[in-house]
Specification:
The longest helix has 28 residues. The protein contains 4 helices and 22 strands. By secondary structure, the protein is α/β, with parallel strands linked by helices. It has a domain of 200 residues.
């Protein structure tokens, strides 16, 4: 029988091993299981052509350039465009017109789509809850769904590591705050989504990737660049000497399929080979002009040359002699 001290020491070791294992399980959910919940990209619809879309106002200073549309709905104020800021080409500005109204409607739908299906909050149990976390500390991040009950912060570089077609969805009920000079690299801008429950701020000279859908306002401070879209639900978008590049992403839920050749049976082959060819449309041809042939003039016979009809051999002889000179 083992000594009581030995048993107590063994018990302490077992408890320590158990606690260490529990810690690994918790840490594993954060550090190693980031891709357990696959995210999906919604379709942009009418919002697809927009680089910037505000709800109340869009205000621009400096020399901001966008290659997509700039619009506002249901507000009407767009200031700073077309001078000193530039929308497009091919983009233009839209102040509460049919295009901006349709884009804002689809923007609201996108906001809801990023909280449904594979992107629902319940799926973050299999992904990561980065509540109030500086995403720089988790870099690089594989594709997946990332949720936060607090702010999303970025103070340094965040690398999105994945393959073509991978999707990243970041959802917070609070703010998105990108520090000055912070960067996001990697990922396809069409497949990186930021669903922000409050406002989003991109700091001075920061470099950001993805489609920002903020419930209230979006601010791009001096020199910040965005490879994606800034789409505000209820507030304003403020720009200052920014560069916004907007990729041509999927905008419709369906696409026209490419016809695929299929094998045909004997009956279908018979129909295919006996299908009459289209009758060619006759081509009009010019009718040739007929040139009349001019016959040489003839001299009518003299009365002396006209002989009455004769019969018999004698008559034939007389006719023959009459024709002699």
């Amino acid at each position: 029988m083992k000594h009581p001290r030995t048993l107590a020491k063994l018990y302490r070791h077992l408890v320590a091993i158990f606690l260490f294992g529990a810690l690994l399980v918790v840490a594993g959910g954060v550090l190693f299981n980031l891709s357990a919940s696959a995210a999906t990209s919604p379709t942009l619809g009418a919002a697809g052509s927009y680089s910037v879309l505000g709800a109340t106002t869009v205000t621009c200073t400096g020399t901001t350039t966008t290659d997509g549309d700039v619009g506002v709905a249901a507000g009407t104020a767009i200031t700073g465009f077309p001078v000193p800021c530039t929308a497009g080409p091919p983009g233009t500005t839209h102040s509460n017109d049919a295009s901006a109204i349709a884009a804002q409607a689809d923007n609201l739908g996108l906001f809801d789509a990023l909280d449904a299906g594979a992107n629902a909050d319940v799926n973050c149990i299999g992904g990561i809850r980065a509540d109030g976390t500086d995403l720089t500390t988790l870099s690089p991040l594989v594709a997946g769904l990332y949720c936060s009950a607090g702010q999303f912060l970025l103070t340094g570089n965040l690398t999105l590591s994945g393959s073509p077609g991978d999707v990243w969805v970041f959802k917070t009920v609070s703010e998105l705050i990108i520090s000055s000079d912070a960067t996001v690299t990697g990922g396809n801008p069409c497949d990186v989504w930021w669903r922000v429950g409050s406002s989003a701020t991109l700091g001075t000279d920061s470099v950001f990737v993805g489609n920002i859908l903020a419930l209230t306002s979006i601010s791009l401070q001096t020199g910040a660049s965005l490879d994606g879209r800034a789409l505000a639900q209820t507030g304003a978008v403020t720009l200052d000497s920014n560069t916004i590049s907007t990729a041509d992403c999927l905008t419709a839920a369906t696409s026209t399929p490419t016809p695929t050749a299929t094998a045909r049976g004997p009956l279908e082959e018979s129909f295919a080979t006996n299908t009459p060819s289209p009758t060619p449309t006759p081509t009009a041809t010019a009718t040739p002009t007929v040139t009349p042939t001019v016959l040489p003039a003839t001299t009518p016979p003299t009365p002396a040359q006209i002989q009455p009809p004769q019969t018999g051999d004698a008559g034939l002889l007389r006719q023959a002699s009459a024709g002699d000179p």
